[in-house]
Amino acid sequence: MRGINKEFWLWPMALVIFTICAVIISSAVSAADLNGAKRGNDDRGGPLWTGIYIDIGGYYESTETSALGGILNVDTRGARGDIGVGADWRLGEAPVVVGLLARYGYSDADGSILGLNVASDTYWMVGGRAGFLVLGDYVMPYIGGAWMSQKTKLAGGIPDPTFDGFVALYGVELALNNNLSVAIEGQSFFPQNETVLGISAEQDGFALGVRGKLRLTGFALR
């Protein structure tokens, strides 16, 4: 096993810096009078959910890569993190929020079999989600889906494959105020197929982690 790659420590550092910057920006934006309109909570009494946002996430990942009809199986485990952008819309008076998202990140998960090291690398995903507001509109359980492309590194000079496939998203998001929210999110990777040196390989698994979000409600999509 490689252990945690030094590059991955950038993600915890980025999360701390993101949180500090988000608090400062949130405080400044909340105090501003944007477009001449007083900003505050949603007309329904809860926080604003409609708007563009940026976010960052960190996860624990466990995947399985199999080949030759399952004769060869490699379990890879480790940390992963990403940065993202997106937009959410609340559907009128209904306690329903829908949104689009895009993320780019890096995974440190790795494993080996018969001396062959298999390691996850960079990935990206695009997709959407839908949630239902509860507890005074401050909490939103949600489900969603995305198309993900995950680069995987193989040792021994073997060409690095890229696994593409569907990812199910599910989680619970808590709005701390109009601009900041945090979420616990799970991801399930549906079987993703790729051919390596003429051999069909398949990869699936899951990830569980947390996300921090800065909602730019000054640019709300209304």
Describe this structure as you would to a colleague:
This protein is mainly β and 222 residues long. The protein has a single domain (6-219), classed as Porin (Beta Barrel). 10% of the residues lie in helices and 60% in strands. It contains one helix and nine strands. It has one helix at 10-31; strands at 51-67, 72-90, 96-107, 110-113, 116-132, 139-154, 162-175, 180-196, 199-216. Strands 1-2-3-5-6-7-8-9 form an eight-stranded antiparallel barrel. Residues 1-11 and 28-40 have low confidence and may be disordered.
Number of discrete domains = 1
Q: Rough shape?
A: elongated
Mean pLDDT: 77
* Count of DSSP strands: 9
CATH class: Mainly Beta
Uncertain segments: 1-11, 28-40
Going by CATH, the architecture would be: Beta Barrel
Reported for the largest beta sheet, the result is: 8 strands, antiparallel, barrel
And the CATH topology?
Answer: Porin
* Tally of helical segments: 1
Question: Structural class of the secondary structure composition?
Answer: mainly beta
How far apart lie the N and C ends?
A: 50 Å
Main sheet strand line-up: 1-2-3-5-6-7-8-9
